[in-house]
Amino acid sequence: MQLKHLRTFLAVASTLSFTKAGQKVHLAQSSVTEQIQALEADLGVALFERSQRRLALTDAGGKLVEYAESMLALAADAKAAVAGCAALRGKLSLGALETLCAHWLAPILAGFQAEHPGLQLDLQVAGTGALREAVKDGSLDLCFSFTQPPHDSGLHSECVGSDELVLLVPAGHPLGGFASVGAEHVAAERFLVTAQGCAYRAMFDSAFSAAGHQLPQVAGEYGSLGAIVSMVRAGFGCALMPRLAVAGLDAGIAALPWQGGGGRIGIHMSWRPRQLPLALRQFQDTLRQRAALHEPVPAVDVQHTAGGEAVSHEEADGVGYVVHMADTAKR
């Protein structure tokens, strides 16, 4: 097996098109076909099922994907080690909810970019479900969300931080003078929430169930955190959400720390179980060191409260939005 054949194989596996794969690896379609045939001859198995209408991976082809990724990653690491090259090169593709991108991940990326100027960092904003699918298919190396992936997702996950859950009330509200609040303080309040299945709705449900209280009255469901904050500011009701989600939107409202269970929400990074590229391993180590320095409070996993894979709300509007972090100044 030649590395160039494995690289071409992964391009075909990700696009399921010889034409698109050729464009991806800068080869003519005929050259792509020749390399795949040579690889199949080496292995003695068919890697793709070919028909006039579609191209699909065989079982053998699906098994080869993970090995091919690992072999190419090892080859890149070996090349860097032999060359004595300490500088990271290439590209690292990351994804996160918009809330995490704007207020938690940005300074981390800026610091990492400053230490490794030769590395291109791409950041994609999307909902939780779309981010995890992108990690699974190799479009992203790593993604961040407020919930752990399901146990059968095939992804590894690790908590690298946490955020504080806060109650939002309009300025002048009787609860505004409290240092913190809990479920017992808001039994008579009306709440604005996101839809069922959203990570933020799961946080709301978990905050009351963990305290052994019934859910308060829901005044309405909204698909935008910005809309919820505006409605709270106008006096229509209260809301529960991570403090990060309120950053920059807190004029005219009070954000009060939430007491009891569910008061902390984990920030989880998820990745595929494979031989990780050197750049990804170093970035993960940077996150772990940062988490250790900040001593995050153990986070509550709200995944099971939601009854399934939690997905984001308005962050889904940002699918495909990519930010190139090259030449970012140090913090």
Question: Quick recap of the structure?
Answer:
The protein is an alpha/beta fold and 331 residues long.
What distinguishing features does this structure have?
single chain; 331 residues; alpha/beta; eight-stranded mixed beta sheet; two-stranded antiparallel sheet; 10 helices; 12 strands; 39% helix; elongated; disordered C terminus
Characterization of this structure:
The chain has 331 residues and is an alpha/beta fold. It has ten helices and twelve strands. Helices cover 39% and strands 21% of the residues. Strands 3, 4, 5, 6, 9, 10, 11 and 12 form an eight-stranded mixed sheet that branches. Strands 1-2 form a two-stranded antiparallel ribbon. The chain has a two-stranded parallel sheet with strand order 7-8. Strand 1 and strand 2 form a beta hairpin. Helix 1 crosses helix 2 and helix 1 crosses helix 4. It is elongated and about 75 Å long. It starts with a helix and ends in a 7-residue tail after the last strand.
